[in-house]
Amino acid sequence: MAGLLPVAEAQARVLALGTPVPSVDVALDAALGRWATAPIVARRTQPSRDLSAMDGYALRFADLPGPLTVIGESAAGAPFPGAIAAGEAVRIFTGAAMPAGADTVLVQEEAGRDGAILTLAGDGPAHVGRNVRRRGLDFAEGDILVAAGERLTPARLAVAATGGVARVPVAKPVRVALAATGDELVEPGTPGDALPESNRLLLRSLLAGSGAEIVDLGILPDRLETLTEAFATVEADVLVTTGGASVGDHDLVRPALLAAGATLDFWRIALRPGKPMLAGRRGAMAVVGLPGNPVSAFVTALLFVRPLVAHLGGAAHPFPPVSRMLLGEDLPANGERTDYLRAEIRDGRAFASTIQDSSMLLTLARSTCLIVREPHAPPARAGDSAEVLIIA
Ligand SMILES: Nc1nc2c(c(=O)[nH]1)N[C@H]1C(S)=C(S)[C@@H](COP(=O)(O)OP(=O)(O)OC[C@H]3O[C@@H](n4cnc5c(N)ncnc54)[C@H](O)[C@@H]3O)O[C@H]1N2
Ligand code: MOO
């Protein structure tokens, strides 16, 4: 279709519309889901000294099979103060410091104990150093624990804490203004038969846990003056609208944005669902106008809005990761738009839903992935490998 922007080009242009957000240091507890804006470097070595990996006896490997004399105890947080000499052992527990002179731990299941006398009751350690965690096994002071641009996952926060880091550099919250448009829409839970508005909830949920701060503009009516006023006065890093993006007489988002002083970068993408998406700027604020159909709003939010917010939040890899999956059924040749087919994964295979209508939320809700079909892709066969985006 002439004039429609390819998806990858549209994605690059949307990222370029954003204005970088400054960094700030926050406590680890406030950083989950955000991105490190600078490398997080270990301030300590882990473990900071040689530790036992097991409950048992610290000894000198050369002294085995013994018998040995137990001269004391080393517990985590209460190390044995002295050193062991030839023929001696120290009772030791997991995580406790190795006493000076010991090089190996005999696990207690393979030890015989009679008073202070320790004997070998099994095969014993296979080699010197067995069951000892050497100083620096995990990382050393100065090592990079989290690279700039990486997401702060639970494990990365835990390694930062272990590295002696209490505050981490992240982007300030990205302010995302959300506006639904449409005279037919009511807030969810409103009695009656009117259409509950669901796109803002979808967007809030997709952005949850990424450090975004939502500026809620609510449901706006299909009135040019009201939309213009809202778009001209909102203050945010990103404005996301839904609905009113197409060509109907009541599709007023584009004229309202222009009247509000925004400039449009593009309108309409070679994408199904989501063709009528538009993008531009008003001053330093990026503007993304999503189509109103809920599935179109979901797909465009996944491909454009969440990556833009991640990019402004410092993400090195803001786009949704692509996986591969075998197709469960044949697929017909594709048309000129990149298609994101709602599909379910069963037994490791992706089955596309029979009806791919962009208004059908239940189909989307039941889907676990989107099958990506490139423009003009030839027919595909069951068992072929296909690109998918995992969505649930
Ligand atoms: N003559 C043409 N008509 C349409 C075209 C076209 O190229 N030529 N494109 C179609 C495509 S593709 C899409 S997608 C839709 C998108 O249109 P709009 O962005 O203008 O969306 P609306 O008309 O406002 O709404 C579409 C549909 O979705 C419902 N909706 C809207 N907002 C919400 C919301 N926040 N929560 C729940 N549901 C919502 C709305 O009631 C409509 O049913 O245009 C095609 N038309
Ligand atoms: O391309 Mo529209 O987004 O499907 O229904």
TrEMBL record:
The UniProt record lists the keyword DNA damage: no
Entry keyword set: Magnesium, Metal-binding, Molybdenum, Molybdenum cofactor biosynthesis, Transferase
Example GO molecular function: molybdopterin molybdotransferase activity
EC number in record: 2.10.1.1
Coiled-coil region list: none
Domain MoaB/Mog: 177-311
Cofactor(s) it depends on: Mg(2+)
Classification via SUPFAM superfamilies: MoeA C-terminal domain-like, MoeA N-terminal region -like, Molybdenum cofactor biosynthesis proteins
Metabolic or biological pathway: Cofactor biosynthesis; molybdopterin biosynthesis
Gene Ontology cellular-component annotations: cytosol
InterPro entries: MoaB/Mog-like_dom_sf, MoaB/Mog_dom, MoeA-like, MoeA_C_domain_IV, MoeA_C_domain_IV_sf, MoeA_linker/N, MoeA_linker/N_sf
Source taxon at top rank: Bacteria
Reactions catalysed according to its record: adenylyl-molybdopterin + molybdate = Mo-molybdopterin + AMP + H(+)
CDD domains: MoeA
Family under the similarity heading: Belongs to the MoeA family.
Function: Catalyzes the insertion of molybdate into adenylated molybdopterin with the concomitant release of AMP.
Protein name (database record): Molybdopterin molybdenumtransferase
Organism: Sphingomonas endophytica
